[in-house]
Write a structure and sequence with these properties.
Oligomer: single chain
Distance between the termini: 71 Å
Radius of gyration: 24 Å
Amino acid sequence: MQKSGLLIAGRWENPDGRIVQEVVSPFTSDAVGEVVLAGREDIDRALDSAVLGAHTWRNTPAHERSKVLLEAARLADERQEELAQTICREMGKSIREARGEASRAGEIIRLSAFEGAHRYGQSLPLDANLGTGLDKTGYTVPQPVGVVVAITPFNYPSLLVVHKIGPALGAGNAVVLKPAAQAPLTACFLAQCFIDAGLPEGVLNVVNGAGREIGAQLVSDARVNKVSFTGSTTVGEQITKIAGVKKLSLELGASSPVIVTKDADLEQAAHAIALGGYINAGQVCISVQRVIVEAEVEEAFLDALTPKVRDITVGDPTKDETMVGTLISESDAARVHTAIGQVISDGAELITGGERDGAMVSPAIVRNVPADHSFAQDELFGPAVSVTTAHGLDHAFQLANSTRYGLGAGVFTHDLDTSIRATREVDAGIVHINWTPLWRADLMPYGGLKDSGIGKEGVRTAVNEMTDWKTIILHSRV
């Protein structure tokens, strides 16, 4: 059983008498590990450690920082199978999906090393300004922001950790990481890769605990220069109220739409949605939640989609043949099951799935869902897709934009005019043509509009958002 303490000033602390939290497999309900929970004094010490670490790391040449990150990436690659098994055990993700997630860790760290070491400033054409001649020259210089607090969710406990700490460290910052209380073991495993790679003490600190207990202290502290958070819109709103004057990146909720037009390739759309709606048991902010289908092709589309969804294997996440494992907890599975039952009671039609067995819910398709129903409007975070009829393209765009969210969207069409209109009219931070929102390249800008967040991730973008830029002006005496 994996046991992890608090990582402060380069050392794992596991003092006697501290509160210890068991980490429980959502599939077996067995304890798979335990972590020490941080108190207020621990948070204070972690932030003090990070302040010292930020000074050390900022004054470390970029090529030396890069060397440490590249070694951490090598170790993540070397320990990839153990990383995947940790993900699978603590959150019930199928081992095939866990291996896919684990395989990206090293590459994201390598990309962070490169981008952090290759931030280019720019020269300023000062003589283009009226009243200024050739007696001055100007340029911009990058500088780390300082201390970054990274708060990560349970659903991608490796991917979303390295998407925060990789760019932060690559840019020369120190980090205090608070992983999700439901899945902290993966984060601790990854932190050890950085420690073993030679990261100086204090540059990376890990504190465990529930966000409602230690989150406010972390994000409101004046020693923190940047908060990078992925989680619910409700918590994101609270962070904006208490953080004070500091940089924020908030990746928040979503109810991602996919439009299937009458000229779409229905087989392609069905294939993509059968993946994009149910991977990770639907616990993905860019999971397909709402399918908006033009009326002329709705029956044919459902005929193509339904057998693909019924073929999804759900079960023991440790088995190679399992496609979808559990939700993060039995209570979450009950929540999703209740939501499906409620929308059916309100007049929608269950096409397939929706049965619950412990923490598992079978992949569901629900049709005739009113666009204003909570099943379509609120983030479900579970393996169910709603289907709503659109009467024309204008109506489809209206339905796609009808929620308060705007993270990702997909449009299936083989009409060039429709493709161009979609990129302009769909209000989402990421718009896919002929695929679902559930696709991400780790190097691309990633973030939403409206209540889906503030700022962007993606390694290059995150490095820039974790950097302060100085403007330097040299004045001649002549």
